[in-house]
């Protein structure tokens, strides 16, 4: 890491915030995240923080496979982005002493794409297939036979003269990762020997992640500073590491480089990340729902127009966290703000809201 990159940074808030539209608390990984994650990624299960049950179960699977001298069973990891699915796939390969091949579902649009990858695998190699639910159907059907029988049929020719040539594969371990396990067809799910769901992290676990990352990045941070960042990280290690890097920048530019609660709070205020981890988009959705529509119910399309965003952006980017935090509810009549949303923005629900259909259960009317 080149610390000299920030020595000439201006203290102006505009230089600290970054490009317009960049979402600091987004769980998708950008190029900067990928580079830093590679440096911070734990190398074995002992270093991996959180996901206690998954780690314990996976450790048994891998130790048993090593004792038998066999390849590990196929593994399916599901959960929200940024929780460590890619990291666990690399740990599986490291624990088994095997190389790893990384690809993704969207990159495999034809059965031939998958056949080319499978035919080049070495014995015992780990194939990590991210977003496995987005793989094309023909490739998916080829994967069934490859996982179960270590064989694929390659079709040569077209029409009545087409011939299926069986191609034997060496034993390998497929690690599939998905953010939407419900989209996987049952025949594919059933072929995984071990499945695990990754849960969101507790603040205490994120504090451990932040302290570990700070140590690797040579950043001074006290427990109160780590707690402040952890509380705004939306239960996601990737977001915690991203916030840590931005707070580090602020501490270098505006302080002595040491991160405490005050510095962390001031830095995240610049980046518009509040105490519960809500950013500008999240608050815009809540403010429109409360101030323009009296708490709802209101349709998704109307709400999206009110905040100047696409319907899909509101539904897929902002809503999941707001629902998980208990700030917004989806009802048959539309989106409805909860009492916690009014309290978070320091607003008082209008009297008429307490009697409207769709909010009676929320407000106890």
UniProtKB/TrEMBL annotation:
<feature type="binding site">
    <location>
        <position position="41"/>
    </location>
    <ligand>
        <name>ATP</name>
    </ligand>
</feature>
<keyword id="KW-0547">Nucleotide-binding</keyword>
<dbReference type="InterPro" id="IPR003593">
    <property type="entry name" value="AAA+_ATPase"/>
</dbReference>
<comment type="subunit">
    <text>Homohexamer. Forms an RuvA(8)-RuvB(12)-Holliday junction (HJ) complex. HJ DNA is sandwiched between 2 RuvA tetramers; dsDNA enters through RuvA and exits via RuvB. An RuvB hexamer assembles on each DNA strand where it exits the tetramer. Each RuvB hexamer is contacted by two RuvA subunits (via domain III) on 2 adjacent RuvB subunits; this complex drives branch migration. In the full resolvosome a probable DNA-RuvA(4)-RuvB(12)-RuvC(2) complex forms which resolves the HJ.</text>
</comment>
<keyword id="KW-0347">Helicase</keyword>
<dbReference type="Pfam" id="PF05491">
    <property type="entry name" value="WHD_RuvB"/>
</dbReference>
<feature type="binding site">
    <location>
        <position position="335"/>
    </location>
    <ligand>
        <name>DNA</name>
    </ligand>
</feature>
<dbReference type="InterPro" id="IPR008824">
    <property type="entry name" value="RuvB-like_N"/>
</dbReference>
<dbReference type="GO" id="GO:0006281">
    <property type="term" value="P:DNA repair"/>
</dbReference>
<protein>
    <recommendedName>
        <fullName>Holliday junction branch migration complex subunit RuvB</fullName>
        <ecNumber>3.6.4.-</ecNumber>
    </recommendedName>
</protein>
<comment type="similarity">
    <text>Belongs to the RuvB family.</text>
</comment>
<dbReference type="GO" id="GO:0006310">
    <property type="term" value="P:DNA recombination"/>
</dbReference>
<dbReference type="GO" id="GO:0048476">
    <property type="term" value="C:Holliday junction resolvase complex"/>
</dbReference>
<dbReference type="GO" id="GO:0005737">
    <property type="term" value="C:cytoplasm"/>
</dbReference>
<feature type="binding site">
    <location>
        <position position="86"/>
    </location>
    <ligand>
        <name>ATP</name>
    </ligand>
</feature>
<feature type="binding site">
    <location>
        <position position="238"/>
    </location>
    <ligand>
        <name>ATP</name>
    </ligand>
</feature>
<dbReference type="InterPro" id="IPR036390">
    <property type="entry name" value="WH_DNA-bd_sf"/>
</dbReference>
<dbReference type="InterPro" id="IPR027417">
    <property type="entry name" value="P-loop_NTPase"/>
</dbReference>
<feature type="binding site">
    <location>
        <position position="311"/>
    </location>
    <ligand>
        <name>DNA</name>
    </ligand>
</feature>
<dbReference type="InterPro" id="IPR036388">
    <property type="entry name" value="WH-like_DNA-bd_sf"/>
</dbReference>
<feature type="region of interest" description="Disordered">
    <location>
        <begin position="1"/>
        <end position="30"/>
    </location>
</feature>
<feature type="binding site">
    <location>
        <position position="87"/>
    </location>
    <ligand>
        <name>ATP</name>
    </ligand>
</feature>
<feature type="binding site">
    <location>
        <position position="191"/>
    </location>
    <ligand>
        <name>ATP</name>
    </ligand>
</feature>
<keyword id="KW-0234">DNA repair</keyword>
<feature type="binding site">
    <location>
        <position position="86"/>
    </location>
    <ligand>
        <name>Mg(2+)</name>
    </ligand>
</feature>
<feature type="binding site">
    <location>
        <position position="201"/>
    </location>
    <ligand>
        <name>ATP</name>
    </ligand>
</feature>
<feature type="domain" description="AAA+ ATPase">
    <location>
        <begin position="71"/>
        <end position="202"/>
    </location>
</feature>
<keyword id="KW-0378">Hydrolase</keyword>
<comment type="function">
    <text>The RuvA-RuvB-RuvC complex processes Holliday junction (HJ) DNA during genetic recombination and DNA repair, while the RuvA-RuvB complex plays an important role in the rescue of blocked DNA replication forks via replication fork reversal (RFR). RuvA specifically binds to HJ cruciform DNA, conferring on it an open structure. The RuvB hexamer acts as an ATP-dependent pump, pulling dsDNA into and through the RuvAB complex. RuvB forms 2 homohexamers on either side of HJ DNA bound by 1 or 2 RuvA tetramers; 4 subunits per hexamer contact DNA at a time.</text>
</comment>
<feature type="binding site">
    <location>
        <position position="85"/>
    </location>
    <ligand>
        <name>ATP</name>
    </ligand>
</feature>
<dbReference type="Pfam" id="PF17864">
    <property type="entry name" value="AAA_lid_4"/>
</dbReference>
<feature type="region of interest" description="Head domain (RuvB-H)">
    <location>
        <begin position="275"/>
        <end position="365"/>
    </location>
</feature>
<feature type="binding site">
    <location>
        <begin position="148"/>
        <end position="150"/>
    </location>
    <ligand>
        <name>ATP</name>
    </ligand>
</feature>
<dbReference type="GO" id="GO:0000400">
    <property type="term" value="F:four-way junction DNA binding"/>
</dbReference>
<keyword id="KW-0233">DNA recombination</keyword>
<dbReference type="InterPro" id="IPR041445">
    <property type="entry name" value="AAA_lid_4"/>
</dbReference>
<dbReference type="GO" id="GO:0009378">
    <property type="term" value="F:four-way junction helicase activity"/>
</dbReference>
<feature type="binding site">
    <location>
        <position position="330"/>
    </location>
    <ligand>
        <name>DNA</name>
    </ligand>
</feature>
<keyword id="KW-0067">ATP-binding</keyword>
<dbReference type="InterPro" id="IPR008823">
    <property type="entry name" value="RuvB_wg_C"/>
</dbReference>
<keyword id="KW-0238">DNA-binding</keyword>
<dbReference type="Pfam" id="PF05496">
    <property type="entry name" value="RuvB_N"/>
</dbReference>
């Amino acid at each position: 890491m080149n610390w000299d990159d920030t020595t000439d940074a201006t203290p102006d808030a505009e230089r600290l915030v970054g490009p317009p539209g960049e979402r600091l608390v987004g769980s998708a990984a950008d190029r900067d995240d990928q580079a830093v994650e590679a440096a911070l990624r734990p190398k074995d299960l002992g270093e991996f923080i959180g996901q206690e049950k998954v780690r314990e179960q996976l450790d048994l699977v891998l130790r048993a496979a090593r004792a038998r001298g066999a390849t590990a069973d196929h593994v399916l990891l599901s959960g929200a982005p940024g929780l460590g699915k890619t990291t666990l796939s690399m740990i599986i390969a490291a624990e088994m002493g095997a190389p790893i091949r990384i690809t993704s579902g969207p990159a495999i649009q034809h059965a031939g794409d998958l056949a080319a990858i499978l035919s080049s695998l070495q014995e015992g190699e780990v194939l990590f297939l991210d977003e496995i639910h987005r793989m094309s159907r023909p490739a998916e059907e080829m994967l069934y036979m490859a996982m179960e029988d270590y064989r694929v049929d390659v079709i040569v020719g077209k029409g009545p003269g087409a011939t299926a040539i069986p191609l034997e594969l060496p034993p390998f371990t497929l690690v599939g990762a998905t953010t939407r396990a419900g989209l996987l067809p049952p025949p594919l799910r059933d072929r995984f020997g071990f499945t695990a769901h990754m849960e969101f992290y507790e603040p205490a676990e994120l504090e451990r992640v932040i302290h570990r990352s700070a140590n690797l990045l040579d950043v001074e941070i006290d427990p109160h500073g780590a707690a402040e960042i952890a509380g705004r990280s939306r239960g996601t290690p990737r977001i915690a590491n991203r916030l840590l890097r931005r707070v580090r920048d602020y501490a270098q530019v505006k302080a002595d480089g040491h991160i405490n609660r005050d510095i962390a709070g001031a830095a995240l205020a610049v980046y518009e990340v509040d105490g519960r981890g809500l950013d500008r988009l999240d608050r815009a959705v809540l403010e429109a729902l409360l101030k323009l529509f009296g708490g709802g119910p209101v349709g998704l399309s109307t709400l999206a127009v009110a905040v100047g965003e696409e319907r899909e952006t509101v539904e897929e980017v902002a809503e999941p966290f707001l629902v998980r935090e208990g700030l917004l509810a989806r009802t048959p009549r539309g989106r409805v703000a909860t009492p916690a949303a009014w309290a978070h923005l320091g607003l008082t629900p209008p009297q008429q809201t307490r009697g409207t259909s769709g909010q009676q259960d929320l407000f106890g009317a």
